[in-house]
């Protein structure tokens, strides 16, 4: 069937226009088999459009895409046979029981009755739905709904599963359990394409793409992205400053010219600082402004820092090309 | 006191903005009643005019033509067809194309010339009692008038033109006989269009539709799988309605029930397609409800269910040709009241089938463009 070494997804120069508006503008990326690919971006930036293009729902204006080696343009139905998809609201029939939901999706994928029974058993085993089989989906909590939805998307044993904001609105425990399940499955060679707004989830992905108004402006492993020169401008370093009165500390840091940017994270401040100001001098300068610092330590940029930096770079470049 | 109304101006301001922004609510709350008023105001015209009439003039001479001219000039009758035998005369009425048939006998002129009484047969479709009543009154009045003229002119002693109205179908002018077959059409539309529209819009709201699109389900599989259960429900509803009509309201069914069932298929097809069309537009079940009412209203007012189509102003009459229920009501009344058969009604069935196909194509295209691609 499919070659085991080929990438799960290859997208090259995808373009999708709606009239004058270009929703997806020359997007290229590759997702390797077994990856958990996190696809991030603000709302309306083209995430859903890319998913629709990859699943063959939206014809490509130009460019090429292959999913598990199948050309999306030539055989969109073929693509939909071999992928799983779970949408953000879990898309279950709430007036059907867990078992009926699974049976319905199994039939859609054309599983034989025997195979269907076997797959339902396997899935129930995998995500622990056993006690709830005869319960209406409406009566399940968010976390269980999501497990059921994932189960429905996996019945036909897809090697690639699209998850559109799988954890929106569910509790932290269920969120963690889902990620454990995803890691487990990805260890068995299943590829995931996950969109999310949670930065901590992005950090867990083996590969991250960031789309900003139709353009992919970041593409790589989280560690590789953290080391990008745009994120770590030459002659700067990042620190985490912990201070008792964090808001007044923030106000103070903004008056120090060697500090390029600052953001509050809970009780601490993340700052990008010019090299020539070392930690001792920084502490001294803050003390001069009556800010007593509990702790200052060097810090690697978070993915949020990465996206913020890349976005402002992208906007500056756009501005420059327009001028 | 001031605190009692705290926030009033802010809420008022905000609400005024909502009303201005939300055009569809405004439309439905203001335009629909006005529209209804116009419909009822214009469509209810108790002076029934221009009744479709078929004429079999076996005589054909001057006297007979004069009589027909008088009938025509009364404004009550609109002669749309001339036929050459009794069977065609009957068929024109049974098929629902004409409500009145006038037969001038072959010896009409002879009898008048010999100062004898000439009988003119007036066949009247009694399914709508107001139309029937008007037809009886006007024809007998014209007969009386014609006779009086001859009495005065020729000093004839006999009653010269003897109009003999004969009410076909529903001779007792029972109103259930008239209304129930039409009601079947309206109720059926109600059930099927609403149910289909709701079932699809519900999937839209839940997001399951989006999920289905990403599976190998083909559009036709999805549509047929959705439609067939509702077609079944529609048929069940039809048989219940017919049963109640026949055995509780005692409306006799003169024609073939199986033909009625068969010709109901294209009508159900139209109303299901209409449901899909609505669901391609509606974003919520409440929205679907509003749109469905838009389709129900013309089915009540323009279909001939309450007001005879012939009595409508020209504009509404033409509009009624685009109302599926108008054709189906002709089918139900035709089979139930007039004992009409396949040869009388196949055109209505065909029109419904074509309408359904047209609507389904539009609906499928809209669905593809606005729902899948959006």
Write the layout of secondary structure elements.
The complex is a heterodimer of chains A (323) and B (374).
Chain A: E1 9-18, E2 21-31, E3 36-40, H1 47-54, E4 62-67, E5 70-71, H2 76-82, E6 83-86, H3 98-108, H4 113-127, H5 142-154, E7 160-164, H6 172-187, E8 191-195, H7 199-204, E9 207-212, E10 215-220, H8 222-226, E11 236-242, H9 246-253, E12 259-265, E13 268-274, H10 279-288, E14 295-298, H11 303-322
Parallel strand pairs in A: 3-8, 3-9, 6-7, 7-8
Antiparallel strand pairs in A: 1-2, 1-4, 4-5, 9-10, 11-13, 11-14, 12-13
Helix pairs in contact in A: 3-4, 3-5, 4-5, 5-6
Chain B: H1 8-21, H2 23-43, E1 51-57, H3 62-73, E2 77-83, H4 86-94, E3 100-104, H5 108-113, E4 118-125, H6 129-154, E5 161-168, H7 175-206, H8 208-213, H9 219-247, H10 257-281, H11 285-301, H12 314-320, H13 324-338, H14 342-372
Parallel strand pairs in B: 1-2, 1-3, 4-5
Antiparallel strand pairs in B: 3-4
Specify the number of helices of chain B.
Answer: 14
Helix content of chain A: 25-40%
Tell me the radius of gyration of chain B: 26 Å
Largest sheet of chain B: 5 strands, mixed
Q: How many domains comprise the coordinates of chain B?
A: 3
Alpha-carbon distance between the two ends of chain A: 51 Å
CATH fold-level assignment of the largest domain in chain A: Rossmann fold
End-to-end distance of chain B: 52 Å
What does this structure look like?
The complex is a heterodimer of chains A (323) and B (374). Chain A is α/β, with parallel strands linked by helices and 323 residues long. Chain A folds into two domains: 9-225, Rossmann fold, CATH 3.40.50.300; 233-300, Alpha-Beta Plaits (2-Layer Sandwich), CATH 3.30.70.100. Chain A has eleven helices and 14 strands. Chain A has a six-stranded mixed beta sheet, sandwiched between helices. A four-stranded antiparallel beta sheet of chain A has the order 2-1-4-5, with helices on one face. A four-stranded antiparallel beta sheet of chain A has the order 12-13-11-14, covered by helices on one side. In chain A, strand 9 (207-212) and strand 10 (215-220) form a beta hairpin. In chain A, helix 4 (113-127) runs antiparallel to helix 5 (142-154). In chain B, helix 7 runs antiparallel to helix 11 and helix 10 packs antiparallel against helix 13 (324-338). The radius of gyration of chain B is 26 Å and the shape is elongated. Chain A binds chain B through residues 55, 57-58, 77, 80-81, 83, 85-94, 105, 108-110, 162, and chain B through 206-208, 210-218, 372-373.
């Amino acid at each position: 069937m499919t070659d085991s070494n080929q990438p799960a997804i290859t997208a090259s120069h995808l373009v999708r226009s709606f009239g004058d508006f270009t929703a997806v503008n020359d997007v290229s990326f590759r997702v390797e088999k077994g990856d958990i690919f996190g696809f991030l971006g603000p709302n309306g930036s083209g995430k859903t459009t890319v998913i629709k293009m990859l699943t063959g729902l939206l014809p490509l204006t130009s460019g090429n895409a292959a999913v598990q080696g199948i050309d999306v343009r030539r055989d969109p139905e073929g693509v939909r046979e071999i992928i799983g998809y779970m949408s953000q609201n879990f898309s279950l029939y709430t007036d059907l029981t867990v078992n009926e939901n699974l049976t319905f999706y199994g039939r859609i994928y054309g599983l034989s009755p025997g195979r269907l029974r076997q797959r339902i058993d396997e899935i129930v085993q995998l995500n622990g739905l056993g006690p709830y089989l005869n319960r209406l989906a409406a009566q399940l909590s968010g976390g269980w709904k999501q497990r059921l939805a994932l189960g429905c998307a996996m019945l036909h044993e897809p090697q690639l599963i699209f998850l559109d904001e799988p954890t929106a609105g569910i509790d932290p425990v269920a969120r963690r359990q889902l990620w454990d399940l995803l890691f487990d499955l990805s260890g068995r060679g299943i590829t995931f394409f996950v969109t999310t707004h949670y930065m901590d989830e992005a950090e867990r992905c083996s590969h991250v793409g960031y789309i900003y108004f139709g353009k992919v402006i970041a593409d790589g492993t989280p560690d590789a992205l953290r080391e990008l020169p745009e994120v770590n401008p030459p002659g700067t370093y990042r620190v985490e400053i912990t201070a008792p009165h964090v808001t007044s500390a923030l106000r103070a840091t903004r008056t120090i010219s060697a500090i390029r940017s600052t953001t509050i994270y809970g009780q601490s401040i993340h700052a990008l600082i010019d090299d020539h100001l070392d930690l001792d001098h920084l502490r001294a300068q803050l003390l001069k402004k009556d800010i007593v610092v509990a702790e200052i330590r060097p810090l690697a940029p978070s993915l949020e820092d990465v996206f913020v930096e890349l976005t402002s770079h992208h906007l500056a470049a756009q501005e420059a090309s327009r001028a | 006191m001031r605190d009692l109304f705290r926030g009033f101006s802010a809420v008022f301001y905000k609400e005024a903005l909502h009303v201005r922004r939300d055009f569809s609510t405004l439309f439905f709350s203001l335009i629909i009643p006005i529209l209804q008023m116009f419909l009822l105001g214009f469509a209810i015209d108790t002076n029934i005019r221009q009744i479709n009439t078929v004429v079999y003039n076996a005589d054909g001479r001057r006297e007979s033509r004069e009589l027909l001219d008088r009938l025509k000039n009364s404004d009550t009758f609109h002669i749309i067809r001339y036929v050459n035998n009794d069977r065609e005369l009957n068929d024109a009425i049974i098929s629902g194309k004409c409500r009145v048939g006038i037969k001038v006998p072959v010896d009409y002129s002879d009898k008048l010339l010999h100062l004898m009484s000439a009988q003119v047969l007036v066949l009247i479709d009694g399914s709508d009692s107001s139309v029937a009543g008007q037809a009886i009154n006007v024809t007998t009045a014209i007969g009386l008038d014609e006779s009086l003229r001859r009495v005065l002119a020729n000093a004839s002693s006999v009653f010269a033109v003897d109009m003999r109205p004969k009410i076909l179908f529903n001779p007792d002018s029972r109103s259930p006989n008239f209304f129930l077959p039409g009601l079947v059409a309206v109720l059926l539309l109600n059930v099927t269009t609403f149910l289909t529209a709701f079932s699809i819009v519900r999937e839209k709201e839940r997001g399951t539709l989006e999920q289905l699109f990403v599976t190998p389900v083909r559009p036709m599989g999805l549509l047929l799988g959705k439609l067939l259960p509702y077609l079944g429900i529609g048929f069940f509803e039809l048989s219940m309605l017919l049963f109640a009509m026949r055995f509780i309201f005692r409306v006799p069914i003169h024609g073939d029930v199986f033909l009625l069932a068969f010709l109901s298929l294209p009508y159900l097809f139209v109303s299901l397609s209409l449901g899909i069309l609505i669901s391609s537009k509606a974003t919520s079940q409440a929205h679907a409800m509003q749109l469905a009412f838009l389709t129900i209203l013309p089915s009540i007012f323009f279909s001939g269910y309450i007001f005879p189509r012939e009595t409508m102003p020209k504009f509404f009459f033409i509009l009624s040709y685009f109302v599926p229920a108008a054709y189906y009501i002709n089918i139900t009344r035709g089979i139930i009241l007039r004992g009409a058969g396949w040869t009388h009604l196949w055109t209505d069935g065909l029109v419904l089938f074509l309408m359904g196909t047209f609507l389904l194509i539009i609906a499928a295209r809209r669905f593809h463009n606005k729902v899948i691609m959006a």
